[in-house]
Design goal:
The structure holds two protein chains of two kinds.
Chain A lengths: L3 H6 L1 H35 L4 H13 L2 H12 L3 H25 L3 H9 L4 H32 L13 H9 L4 H29 L7 H5 L1
Chain B lengths: L2 H10 L10 H33 L3 H13 L2 H15 L7 H25 L3 H9 L4 H35 L8 H9 L3 H29 L2 H4 L19
Helix pairs in contact in B: 1-9, 2-5, 2-7, 3-5, 4-5, 5-7, 6-7, 7-9, 8-9
The chains are: A mainly alpha, B mainly alpha.
Chain lengths: ~220, ~240
């Protein structure tokens, strides 16, 4: 059932697409985090802005990805922008809500103690609130990364130049259900998602050993 | 001709509103496969989630399954399913069946997780009161826990439904019907009006689904818990939705 000759002859292509997959996903999560971080800090400071920001991010999240990629083609063409804009947009709701929830979860006593010690607002944020919010921020990054890795496969609908490992799924299908190629895309893309998930769990434990009890698992 | 006029022209063309590949029929196909897969996913995940939430047993296993399910790229699930579904039905197995499999697989995690966290978070005093009144376990689950947890349970159904609508769109790539056809065909034919017409319809359906289940969530919230500040079951802190399609 598996065409080993094809597989042997395409190891370079698989390696390239794997790298492309990681690159497209990494870029999306990085830009998404930068935007979310700023928006979350603004929302945490000016509380009234949180509902509209969260609602807008949630609204964007509802739109099916194929629709978003396709819609952007006629605006930004077959460029990397068309691939990245939806990837970034889908991370926003996850990251913003987790960062804000993390900051909200900081106990009032701790905030008051920081104030009592004479920390400025900025010092309190960076030295007290953000470190305590870290478990939820990392939990958000974990969800966003895994979800983005899945979505990268769909960027293959923009053009053959994108898609990461999803390219093989679509190309194999268009060759008349060429299973070897489809599996060469499907299996590594699943492994990539699971691998990223595993790495984030390790990271979570490493940087926040006190949360070893699986507090976050229960609420996701 | 710009994008807006092209899209409006496509959407208002009477030819688009009739026949097998018309908008009403495609919408019907989309809603139909989405409903079937949501029903199957509910049947599989809801009883399990409620039982886990009530007994507290198996939560770790369920979290593991849900986490695995959420990690799967939807396109990969469709691809993996094809060889199996082709054995079931040579024709449908290459088109609509693998998409259906993916829709069910991806809908299970949010339903399962929200069902068991919703039930598990119900105030234990309420449950003990029920037990003290001589209610059976089943009566406690149906009469106390489920009504209180219903908004949270439905929150999972909402995530699942929106996810399903998105995955059904993806199915069009693999030759199944639904509104995604307009996007896939429009891209293949370089027809911007058709692509954007499809985008408007698909996005509209997804948002309508979200709003409809969201409304149901609000309606099912017990009046006693409805006043702000008294919500017994706030949305879990990290209940972030996941997107696979």
């Amino acid at each position: 059932m598996i065409d080993w000759t094809w597989l042997g002859g395409h190891l370079d292509a698989i390696a390239f697409r794997t790298w492309q997959h990681v690159y497209l996903a990494g870029l999306g999560v990085a830009i998404g985090f930068a935007i979310s971080f700023v928006l979350a800090l603004v929302a945490a400071r000016y509380r009234i802005l949180y509902p509209p920001i969260s609602a807008l991010a949630g609204f964007l999240f509802t739109i099916p990805s194929l629709a978003l990629f396709a819609a952007l083609i006629s605006i930004t063409g077959f460029s990397v922008v068309t691939a990245e804009v939806p990837l970034v947009m889908y991370t926003l709701v996850i990251l913003i809500r987790n960062i804000v929830a993390g900051l909200d979860g900081v106990p009032t006593d701790v905030v008051e103690a920081a104030d009592g010690m004479g920390l400025s607002r900025r010092q309190r944020l960076w030295r007290v609130e953000l470190p305590l919010a870290l478990p939820l921020i990392v939990a958000g990054l974990r969800l966003a990364t895994v979800s983005t890795i899945g979505l990268v496969t769909i960027t293959g609908t923009i053009s053959d130049a994108f898609g990461g490992l999803g390219y093989f799924i679509l190309d194999g299908y268009h060759r008349g259900n060429f299973l070897t190629e489809m599996y060469a895309g499907a299996v590594p893309s699943i492994l990539l998602a699971l691998g990223a998930d595993f790495l984030f769990v390790r990271l979570q434990r490493r940087i926040t050993p006190w949360t070893r009890a699986r507090a976050i698992e229960a609420t996701t | 001709m710009n994008l807006v006029t092209q899209t409006v022209a496509w959407l208002t063309n009477p030819a688009q509103w009739a026949g097998q590949s018309g908008i009403p029929n495609r919408l019907l196909e989309h809603v139909l496969i989405a409903s079937i897969s949501l029903a199957v996913a509910l049947l599989l995940a809801l009883p399990a989630g409620l039982a886990i939430g009530h007994t507290g047993r198996g939560a770790g296993v369920a979290a593991g399954i849900a986490n695995l399910g959420r990690s799967l790229p939807s396109l990969a699930v469709i691809a993996i399913a094809i060889p199996v579904t082709v054995l079931v039905d040579p024709v449908l197995g290459g088109t609509v069946l693998p998409t259906l499999v993916a829709m069910v697989v991806l809908a299970i995690p949010p339903i399962l997780v929200n069902a068991y966290t919703g039930i598990a978070e119900v105030d234990r005093d309420l449950v003990e009161a029920g037990r003290g009144m001589g209610m059976r376990e089943r009566q406690i689950l149906v009469g106390i826990e489920l009504p209180v947890a219903l908004p949270v349970v439905l929150g999972g159904v909402r995530s699942a439904a929106v996810q399903i609508v998105a995955t059904a769109t993806l199915g069009a790539i693999f030759g199944s019907g639904g509104l995604g056809r307009f996007i896939v065909d429009g891209l293949a034919q370089n027809d911007d009006g058709q692509v954007w017409g499809g985008v408007v319809l698909v996005a509209g359906l997804a948002i309508a689904t979200e709003v409809a289940v969201g409304l149901l969530e609000r309606l099912t919230q017990s009046p006693g818990l409805r006043s702000p500040g008294l919500r017994a079951v706030p949305e879990p802190a990290a209940s972030s939705p996941m997107r696979g399609a």
